[in-house]
Amino acid sequence: MAEPTAIGLVCPGCRRLEGGQLVVSALQAGPLGLVCPGCGRDHPVVDGVPIVLADLDAWLQSEGPALLRRSDLEPPLLERLCLGAGGVLARDMARVQTYLDASDSPLQRWARSLLDESGGPALDPSGSAALDPSGSAALDLGCGVGSGDERVLGLDLHWASLQKARGPVVLADALNPPFLARSFELVLALNLLDSCRDPGLMLQQALALVAPGGRLALASPFHWQESVTPRSLWLRPEQVEDFLRAQSVELTRGEAEWSLSLGPRSEIRHRCVTWLVRLAH
Q1: For residue 235, what pLDDT is reported?
Q2: How far apart are the first and last CA of the chain?
Q3: Domains of the chain: which residue ranges?
Q4: Residue 187 and residue 275: Cα distance in Å, rounded?
C-alpha cells in the first residue's frame, strides 16, 4: 500500500528552474490566509476559498468588485443591486445562473463515471489534508460552479462561480496551477480548452499534474472566441490528438453532448470531443 500523500498548494509566482531543478515554495498560514515563505506573496483566503495567483493585483483590477460583493443581502436585493451596478457584477449574475440551471448531460455523466471508478476521499480546500492511501485525488480544472462531488478539488478563475460551488475549491489559473507535478490520479479539463487564453499550455499543465498511472479527461466543443483565445492559438481536434499521442500515453477518443440553459424555453447543445488519457506507471 502506498504511503499517504498530501496535496499542498505551492506559490505560482516564484516557481522557477535553478540548475535544471524546479524550485517551489509550499504556502504557509499567513495574516491574510496564506503566504509564500520564498517570495513573501500574500495569497488571501476569502470565505474559505484560497486565492492563489502569480499576480493577484492584475486579477483584482477586473474581478475585484465581485470579490467585495456583500453576501449578507437577500437574493432579490442583491440581484437588483448587481444588475444596476453593471460590469462584472451583472455579468456574473447571468453567467452563474446559466450553469446552475444546466440540465444533467452525457458529458457530466461521463465525468461522474470516471470519478466513481477512482473513488477517493474529500479534499481540504486549504490543500493541506493528508489523503487516504486507498483512495485517489481528483482535480477539476475550470470547474465553474463545480460538480458537487466532495472528492474533487475544483479550480477556476471565476469568483462568482466558486462562491456557488459545493465542495473544496481554489481560485487559481489553470495555466499556472499552484500544485506540484504528478499530484493527482484524475485530472478533469472539461470545456476548458476553448475557454482559456493559451490552450497548448493548458494541455501541457494538465498532463503534468497527472500522477503515473493516472488519467486525464479532456472535453471540448472547439467553440473558439477571439475575445478569449487569440486566433493564432486555436487548435483542431487532430492537433490535440497528435500532441497527446506524442506523449506515449494510452488514449481513447469519443464524443459527448453538453447542454446549457439560456432560459425556460431555450437551450444550447454542444457536441464535445472527448479524450481519456492514461499515463504509464
Answers
A1: 97
A2: 15
A3: 16-278
A4: 12
In terms of Cα–Cα distance, which of 255, 279, 258 is closest to 206?
279
Q: What is the mean pLDDT of residues 43-67?
A: 92
C-alpha cell at 95: 453567467
Residue among 124, 157, 156, 158 nearest 140 (CA): 156
DSSP assignment string, 70-95: -SSS-HHHHHHHHHHH-HHHHHHHHH
- This prediction's pTM: 0.87
Measured distance CA(88)–CA(213) in Å, rounded: 41
Fold of 16-278: Rossmann fold (3.40.50)
CA pair distance 251, 7, nearest whole angstrom: 26
- The reported pLDDT for the residue numbered 127 is 41
Residue of 131, 125, 161 lying closest to 145 (CA atoms): 161
Which pLDDT value is given to residue 2?
Answer: 29
